[in-house]
Every structure is written in structure tokens, then in C-alpha cells.
Design brief:
Elements lengths: L4 E7 L2 H12 L6 E4 L4 E6 L4 H13 L2 E8 L2 H30 L1
Antiparallel strand pairs: 1-3, 1-4, 2-3
Length: 105
């Protein structure tokens, strides 16, 4: 995908996602997009195209979706991975404390 900015939308159901995709397909200068799963949409566009970015955000909102990310390409995935790693580390520490407490009794 060409572009350096992404807008991600989260939808409550497949119908809302389909409505947003239909509206994006009707755009004069249609940006690249990818349906990630049944409820998530990723639209990749150029950073220096605020009009298209605004239009995509409005399409997501009007289709009863939620703009989950409006950031540089890849930043959303990186933040999700960092949060996942942090949670895994906290869970490991918790298990370690429990094992230590159980051994003490």
C-alpha cells in the first residue's frame, strides 16, 4: 500500500462496515483500503491530503463506526504490540509473585 498515513475504523457490525466501504468506493479519488476482519477497516492515504483524510473520517462516523486510529502508517500496530508486551510482562510478574507466595506457605 502506498501512503504514509492511516485511518482505522471499528464498526459494530458487518453491515456498517460494508456501507463505509461502499461510500469509499464512490469517492472521486478513492484511497487504498483494506478490510482487516469483519469489523475493522484500514484506509491508507497520503499525509499531505487533509481533505481526503477528513472525508474518510466522516464516512466512518456516518456509517456508525468509530475512528480508532488516525496516525502515521504502522504506529497503531506498534502501539498495540507494545501494550500486548506490557500486559504479558505484568502477567508474568503476577504469576511469579503468586508462585513465590505459595512456596512461602
Amino acid at each position: 500500500m502506498a501512503g504514509d498515513w492511516e485511518v482505522r475504523g471499528l464498526f459494530g457490525n458487518e453491515y456498517a462496515l460494508e456501507r463505509a466501504v461502499d461510500e469509499i468506493n464512490k469517492m472521486e479519488r478513492r484511497p487504498e483500503y483494506r478490510v482487516l476482519d469483519r469489523r475493522n477497516l484500514q484506509v491508507v492515504l497520503s499525509r499531505n491530503d487533509p481533505a481526503t483524510k477528513s472525508l474518510v473520517r466522516n464516512i466512518i462516523t456516518i456509517a456508525h463506526g468509530f475512528v480508532e486510529s488516525d496516525a502515521p502508517l504502522g504506529q497503531y500496530d506498534r502501539l498495540k504490540q507494545e501494550a500486548k508486551a506490557k500486559k504479558a510482562k505484568a502477567d508474568a510478574e503476577k504469576r511469579k509473585r503468586r508462585a513465590k507466595a505459595a512456596a512461602a506457605h
